[in-house]
Please model this.
Amino acid sequence: MAAQMNERVVRASKLNFTVLEIGEGPLVLCLHGFPDTAHSFRNQMPALADAGYHAVAPFMRGYAPTEPAPDGRYDSPVLSEDALALIEALGYQEAVLFGHDWGAVAAYGAAARAPNVVQKLITAAVPYGTSFFQALVTNYAQQRRSWYMFFFQTAIAETAVSLNDFAFLEKMWRDWSPGWNWTQPEMEALKRCFRAKGTLEAALGYYRATLGPVLKIPAQPSALATAMAAPIEVPTLMFHGRDDGCIGAELLSGMEALFPRGLKIDVVPGAGHFVHQEKPDHVNRLMLQFLRQGI
Model:
């Protein structure tokens, strides 16, 4: 059986990151998204440790107890820089990345930038490429799913999201993963993070750094995602819930062309946006198979 999950602080990117970790061996760095915390990978990390890996999940920049960014940066490139900096700070020259939602964005960017550091890539819930940004302009179904991204640009977002002890977040989990019966301790862990001073502003900052500039200048769909268009020279496994209420599975079409070293996409029936939490046995089995054997 795997050892106890530990928590400690790691200094990287001039920030103090609080991380959860378990196991010994090659590093698997697990990067969470929104609205979520490092606890997102509580089902994957013990399985990784039992398989001989050192699994580490940081609370992403700005998500308490990790520090807010002193310079206010929450853009996609800096998230990728954080991933690479954490690998080095943890004492490794290379690692596997497992990213969900914003963590997937960070992982894609790190793999594109440093394929010599990222050995293998596992992502969930967010496709790579320009399709998502194009869909914000051309796909009505995705525009409806992504309404919150535009709402988060407004000055009332902090008040609305925090109202009634962050009931907004609970409703987002329900909308994005309609079949997921999470437990109250899981929701409490999320709300505890967001109650901490600075977390909500930081979490919204991820969206404001991405869409804010686009809303202020004329933009073409093809120009919105240049950072998500470079080929990724790393073997990759991607999970996506068929019932994802945040990002439609149709946006995964054509991703394979950007992964010359191979991409396996697993669209999971009966799962939504938080696929790795909803179907942990399925995800863990394919994850460990991918790590042992590849695609």
